[in-house]
C-alpha cells in the first residue's frame, strides 16, 4: 500500500530522519518508491535575509496488513508480501469467512477478480430409486493473492457476506488440476 507524504526539508535532513525512524520503529517503510521534487519555496524568518528550502513529495510503500483465517487454511505468500489492495480479500480485506466451506472446479475466468466454478452433485429420485447428475454454477471472488489460477483447477471456497448481487463466496485455497479429464466429479 503506497502512502504519499510531503516534506519541506532538504534531502540530507530527510535521509537522517528516515534512518532515525528505522532505528526506533524497525523497518516500517519497506521501500521508498519515488521522490517528486517541487519548486523551491521561500521561507520567511525574523532575520532580514530569507532562506530557501526545497519541498518534495515522497511515496513510500508500507508492509501490507494480513490476517490468518484459521479453519486450517494458510495465508498465501502474496497476501503477506504483496502490495495489492482488495477490500473483498479474506486475507487483507474486511471480509470474514463464516458458514459453509465448499469445493468446485473453475470453469470461467472472464470477470475481474471473480470466477465461475461448477459444483457437481447427485440428486436422488425416489420414484425410480436412483440418482441423477446435476450441477450448479457459482460466482466466487478470487483475490489477487492467487496468481496462477486457470480453468480446470479445483478451488475451495468459503461463505462470506454478500459481496455483490451474485457473489457470496471467497476463494480460500487453489489446487492445481492433475490432468486433462472431463468427467463428472462429485464434491
Automatic annotation (TrEMBL):
Q: Which GO terms describe its biological process?
A: translation
Q: What is its main location?
A: cytoplasm
| Alphabetical list of CDD domains matching this protein | Ribosomal_uS17
Signal peptide range equals none
Q: Name one Pfam family in it.
A: Ribosomal_S17_N
Q: Which SUPFAM superfamilies match?
A: Nucleic acid-binding proteins (SSF50249)
Task: Please provide the record's keywords in A-Z order.
Answer: Acetylation, Citrullination, Cytoplasm, Lipoprotein, Methylation, Palmitate, Phosphoprotein, Ribonucleoprotein, Ribosomal protein, RNA-binding, rRNA-binding
Gene Ontology CC terms:
cytosolic small ribosomal subunit
Return one GO MF term.
Answer: structural constituent of ribosome
* Domain (Small ribosomal subunit protein uS17 N-terminal): residue spans on this chain: 62-102
Where is it located?
Cytoplasm
**Family label:** Belongs to the universal ribosomal protein uS17 family.
Protein's recorded name: Small ribosomal subunit protein uS17
Q: Which organism is it from?
A: Hucho hucho
Amino acid at each position: 500500500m503506497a502512502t504519499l507524504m510531503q516534506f519541506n526539508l532538504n534531502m540530507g535532513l530527510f535521509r537522517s530522519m528516515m534512518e532515525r525512524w528505522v532505528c526506533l520503529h524497525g523497518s516500517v517503510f519497506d521501500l521508498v518508491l519515488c521522490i517528486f521534487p517541487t519548486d523551491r519555496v521561500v521561507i520567511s524568518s525574523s532575520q532580514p535575509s530569507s532562506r530557501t528550502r526545497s519541498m518534495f513529495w515522497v511515496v513510500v510503500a508500507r508492509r501490507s496488513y494480513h490476517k490468518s483465517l484459521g479453519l486450517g487454511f494458510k495465508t498465501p505468500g502474496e497476501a503477506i508480501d504483496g502490495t495489492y489492495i482488495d477490500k473483498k480479500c479474506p486475507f487483507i480485506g474486511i471480509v470474514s469467512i463464516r458458514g459453509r466451506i465448499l469445493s468446485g472446479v473453475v470453469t470461467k475466468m472472464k470477470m475481474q477478480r471473480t470466477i465461475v466454478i461448477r459444483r457437481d452433485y447427485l440428486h436422488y429420485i425416489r420414484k425410480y430409486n436412483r440418482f441423477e447428475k446435476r450441477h450448479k454454477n457459482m460466482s466466487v471472488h478470487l483475490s489477487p493473492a492467487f496468481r496462477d489460477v486457470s480453468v480446470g483447477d479445483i478451488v475451495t471456497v468459503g461463505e462470506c457476506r454478500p459481496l455483490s448481487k451474485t457473489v457470496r463466496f471467497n476463494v480460500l485455497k487453489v489446487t492445481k488440476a492433475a490432468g486433462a479429464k472431463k468427467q463428472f466429479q462429485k464434491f
